Amino acid sequence: MAAITLDPSFNPKTNPHEHDQQHGNVIEEIEGLIKVYKDGHVERPHIVPCVATAVPPELGVTSRDVVIDKFTNIWSRFYVPKCHGNDNKLPFLVYFHGGGFCVGSAAWSCYHEFLAKLAAKAGCLIMSVNYRLVPEHPLPAAYEDGLKALLWLKQQALSQRGANNKWWSRQCDFSRIFLVGDSAGANIAHNVATRLCNIISDGPCDEQIIISSLIKPLTIKGTILLQPFFGGEARTSSEKYNMVKQPRSALSLAASDTYWRLALPCGANRDHPWCNPLKRASSLRAVWATMVCISEMDILKDRNLEFCCALDHNSNRAGKMKVECVVYKGVGHAFQVLDKSQLSKTRSQEMITHIKAFVNYN
């Protein structure tokens, strides 16, 4: 994975066969990111450093970590920009990080830097959810954690007079909630929305008023999906031909396949609806306003475009929200967090501007 900053404290073992002897053979591996051994042991090298909550003072953002569920060790990192005036309530983004469901953390330096900037420049509060990872916690654990974070937020809104959450809740507009994520996190945001519908109606969800009753006083205004991580058994053009050898994208086809083998239920293939939402395209629709951000040099480009088309078509036909699709030229997967080139910095600023406009409009 190009352009990832290595943790200087990372010290590889001198005997590369030590774990082979102790845990058996490696059965799945993405070089530098994850090794899964025959006995179930998992290694994740510290290729990206985890950092504390400190934020550059010039951003004017306060960041703290908050426990969501101590029993499952779900927690979130909050980003709260300075609010001028007592009545200036800010929209709230529930954010899910990427990493193929297998790696990543709300404390990773690349996410900490990006989300602090997003909070400051877009003028919004952010709760970055640290959900459980596969293969130790197979899907749908991450989806359940996302829903649990949303229901936890509901409880905070109901008890916002409490001293423990006053430092952020007094600035939060609980009537303007957005589900946001990148890569696997965008997949989680999409499936949390879908799961919320299924909990209510045990099928395709058409009534926003029913959803509102479950999460009241929260009001979800939209979903923002950054390079959503989807797949399928049939290869797309961008997977087969255009992007496989592109140096500007952090996600390879081989890595994508490995992530899905580790994440999906035993015996499932990449046409499982968690991976390939187009397999149930007739029920695919946007319950809320939706923006999908796509990278031109990403192997997922074609899948993301097909998803947008199906979502927009079904939503318009059902009289629902329109879907906004934005393509970022010349950059690859997760450029906003993993690529430090000048082009990526420019595109990242464009992305923040687009997110701000979408949040302020809806």
From TrEMBL:
Matching InterPro entries: AB_hydrolase_3 (IPR013094), AB_hydrolase_fold (IPR029058), Carboxylest/Gibb_receptor (IPR050466)
Pfam family, one: Abhydrolase_3
Protein origin, superkingdom: Eukaryota
Domain Alpha/beta hydrolase fold-3: 93-336
Molecular function (Gene Ontology), one example: hydrolase activity
Family: Belongs to the 'GDXG' lipolytic enzyme family.
Protein name: Alpha/beta hydrolase fold-3 domain-containing protein
